[in-house]
Amino acid sequence: MTVNIVKTQQTDNLIYLDYPATTPCDSRVFEKMAPYFCNLFGNPHSNNHALGWAAHDAVEAAYAQIAGFLRVAPKEIIFTSGASEANLIALRGVMTKLPRTDKNHLITTETEHKSILTCCKQLESEGFQVTYLPVDEHGLIDVAALASAITERTLLVSIGTVNNETGVIQPMEQIGRLCHERGVTFHTDATQAAGKMQIDLAKWNVALASFSAHKIYGPKGIGALYLRSAPATKLRPVQVGGGQQRGIRGGTIPVPLCVGFAEACRILQDDFASELVRIAELSARLFDGLCKSDPLVKMNGAPHSKVPHIVNVGFPFVEGESIAMGLGNLCVSTGSACSSDQLESSHVLRAMHVDDYYVQSSIRFGLGRFTTKEDVDYTIAKTSEVVARLREMSPLWEMHQSGVDLGRVQWK
Ligand SMILES: *Cc1c(COP(=O)(O)O)cnc(C)c1O
């Protein structure tokens, strides 16, 4: 496998462990895309000349490739700018579909990606009802609680397959069965599931699903909405544009990005089984290594229901931000990318009722295609060293050692 992270002065010696935030574009993907920028630049909607036809064919091939990867029909794929937009079309599109009925209730969870939660807030401000299901300490929803939350007025359930901060996998089959029995449409944000686990939209009774290319070694700026055709999923378009993609998502289709997205799916599919084994080994090695050097380490998220690619751990009595700073050349994340910008603690870990001092001390290590065993060993050594040094200086550690129960302390 080609290791293609381009080393420049800024990236030399960096070890990238922030794959859930974004991935490098695989060089094979980039090469596939290249001709479609300057040479085969036609508009796929121009049907009077050869350049238009070539672009059209490339887009059709991309639909087919992505559909094949998801084991759905090509006509069930709608290209979007990314998963955020796919989520928006799914939620707004279904909730505002015409003709309006008295169904105005949406159910989601407290641990969804911000693109879902922000959209829900906006719908609430327009008079729609939203229920945010809590999760247990493992990050899992209670399917019985979902069952009792569904009412006569419930139109849509939106629950992400894999959480981007913890890697926790929700019980998709049970959720799907329940939605089917109760006649409720089921949407899932499957962005973090692609390439990390078997996706079975039919078995899960999913009517709509969101994906993003830049999380799977494809280009930024493209994603997909899966829209089930039978039984048909009705929605009201958000961006009508020039009526492209059957009026569901207008705008000229970005051919190079489609080609890249498709190639990214092809590579995922080809390497799926071996890559999963490799990542599972690296993941276990990382967590075991961290535990060995620091017995206080705690994994956030259900170990029995998660993808191995995301290892979210708390190092109590030290601050995550300080750890991340100390890790220097290791690219990791404290909380999600968006919440770190806003300098607020992770809404996902808070929803899991992780103790505050664990939330503040948590680091997300993301493993991916270009992670090596050497990277993992270096990460264990470096993290252990930084955590030990910070803990020595930690007033919290001192309080703990002198017998203060930090679980009972109120943090500001
Ligand atoms: C990254 C991510 C998104 C947003 O995807 P974009 O393509 O960047 O809009 C949505 N949901 C999840 C779970 C993600 O990890």
Q: Structural class of the helices, strands and pairings?
A: alpha/beta
Give the low-pLDDT segments: 336-340
* Averaged pLDDT: 93
Rounded to the nearest angstrom, the radius of gyration is: 22 Å
N→C terminal distance: 48 Å
Helix content: 25-40%
Could you characterize the architecture of this molecule?
This protein has 412 residues and is of the alpha/beta class. Helices cover 39% and strands 12% of the residues. It is built from 14 helices and twelve strands. It has helices at 27-33, 35-38, 50-70, 83-95, 114-125, 143-149, 172-182, 255-293, 320-326, 337-341, 347-351, 356-359, 373-392, 395-401, and strands spanning 15-16, 77-80, 105-109, 129-133, 154-158, 185-189, 208-212, 223-227, 298-299, 310-314, 330-331, 362-366. The strands form three sheets. The chain has a seven-stranded mixed β-sheet, sandwiched between helices. Strands 9-10-12 form a three-stranded antiparallel β-sheet. Helix 7 (172-182) links the parallel strand 5 and strand 6. Helix 1 (27-33) packs antiparallel against helix 8 (255-293) and helix 3 (50-70) runs parallel beside helix 8. It is globular. Mean pLDDT is 93; it is low at 336-340. Pyridoxal-5'-phosphate (PLP) binds at residues 20, 82-84, 113, 115, 160, 164, 189, 191-192, 212, 214-215, 223.
Q: What is the topology?
A:
Blueprint: E1 15-16, H1 27-33, H2 35-38, H3 50-70, E2 77-80, H4 83-95, E3 105-109, H5 114-125, E4 129-133, H6 143-149, E5 154-158, H7 172-182, E6 185-189, E7 208-212, E8 223-227, H8 255-293, E9 298-299, E10 310-314, H9 320-326, E11 330-331, H10 337-341, H11 347-351, H12 356-359, E12 362-366, H13 373-392, H14 395-401
Parallel strand pairs: 1-11, 3-4, 3-5, 5-6, 6-7
Antiparallel strand pairs: 2-8, 7-8, 9-10, 10-12
Helix pairs in contact: 1-8, 3-8, 4-5, 8-13
The protein binds pyridoxal-5'-phosphate (PLP).
